[in-house]
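Translate structure to sequence.
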């Protein structure tokens, strides 16, 4: 007889909406978001805490959702890229990435935008060093980062003016 794994009921808020799920203790947060809640804007690149494609905010702080178990998010508030847009209008950060051509394939972009979200909430006028530190955990294999920097500077400006 195969051993069964007890499931645990967790409750959390994602993008302001309440969710409940019965999960195996080994389920990763990124799997919960993508496979149970169908929020596929959170990507999986490396699955080893390196690339940052899976970045989300948990209780306002950037986390790599491939490196957390879903049960660790019990009672938490999560923000994913799907939660940035409001009533069909792009968030100033999303607008800045589009307007600055801060992406090519876009695989890294949701994670970068969430790292930017935390940065611009903490620093209204981030320096280049602040930007470098904020996105140190987000890897982009396409853009060479010049336009990502432009996008983040514009995002900070947009958020200040928003
Ligand atoms: S998928 Fe999580 S850091 Fe790469
Ligand atoms: S735009 Fe392709 S990985 Fe960043």
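Result:
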């Amino acid at each position: 007889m195969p051993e069964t794994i007890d499931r645990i009921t967790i409750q959390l808020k994602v993008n302001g909406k309440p969710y409940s799920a019965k999960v195996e203790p080994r389920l990763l947060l990124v799997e919960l978001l993508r496979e149970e809640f169908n929020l596929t804007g959170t990507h999986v690149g490396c699955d080893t805490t390196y690339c940052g494609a899976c970045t989300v905010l948990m209780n306002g702080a950037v986390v790599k959702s491939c490196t957390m178990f879903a049960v660790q998010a019990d009672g938490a508030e999560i923000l994913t890229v799907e939660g940035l847009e409001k009533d069909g209008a792009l968030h100033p950060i999303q607008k800045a990435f589009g307007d600055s051509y801060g992406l090519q394939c876009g695989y890294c972009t949701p994670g970068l935008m969430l790292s930017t979200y935390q940065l611009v909430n903490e620093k209204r006028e981030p320096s280049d060093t602040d930007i470098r530190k904020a996105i140190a955990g987000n890897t982009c294999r396409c853009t060479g980062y010049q336009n990502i920097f432009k996008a983040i500077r514009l995002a900070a400006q947009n958020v200040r003016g928003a």
